[in-house]
Amino acid sequence: MRNDNSITVLLAGVGVGAVAAMLLTRWSGAELRRSLRQQAESSSFYLKLHAEDLAKRAEAASVAGHQSVGSHLVDAKSAVRATGSKAVDAINSAADAAARMADNLLDQSGDLARRAGKMVEQA
Questions:
Q1: pTM above 0.70?
Q2: DSSP states of 27-73
Q3: Which residues fall within 8 angstroms of residue 53, CB to CB, at 6 or more apart?
Q4: How far out from the chain centre does Cα 53 lie?
Q5: How does pLDDT run across 13-54, given as a tens digit for each residue?
């Protein structure tokens, strides 16, 4: 953040300095142009230096972000797989319980049918 403010202040200073130099100078046109060229070159160097630094920081942030997102994606895939596995286990358990209940119900209904048959025979 401080570097952003420094660049803004630098550019404002260059602009104010250039305007003030043109208005207040006693230099000839050639001297003034040379001075402005030097200031522009100095400012250009400063901006290029900081632009390269900013590009390096942005690249590092991009790599870090990519790695972070990648690790979270792997974690999310693992969580989904674990949840899916648990869901399959729960469904299989419920299906087994339903099958046992159905077998039990069939056994009980068979017993009732036999009892009813014996009652009918005895009557």
A1: no
A2: S-HHHHHHHHHHHHHHHHHHHHHHHHHHHHHHHHHHHHHHHHHHHHH
A3: 3
A4: 24
A5: 877 777 776 777 676 767 767 777 787 778 777 777 777 777
The residue to which tokens 């300095």 are assigned: 17
Q: Which residues make Cβ contacts (< 8 Å) with residue 10, sequence separation at least 6?
A: 43, 46, 47
Q: Contact 46/9 with Cβ under 8 angstroms?
A: no
d(CA 41, CA 18): 13
Residue with tokens 């803004």: 8
The CA R_g of the chain, rounded to the nearest whole Å, is 42
Who contacts 27 (Cβ-Cβ below 8 Å, separation ≥6)? 21, 35
Cα separation, 88 vs 85, whole angstroms: 5
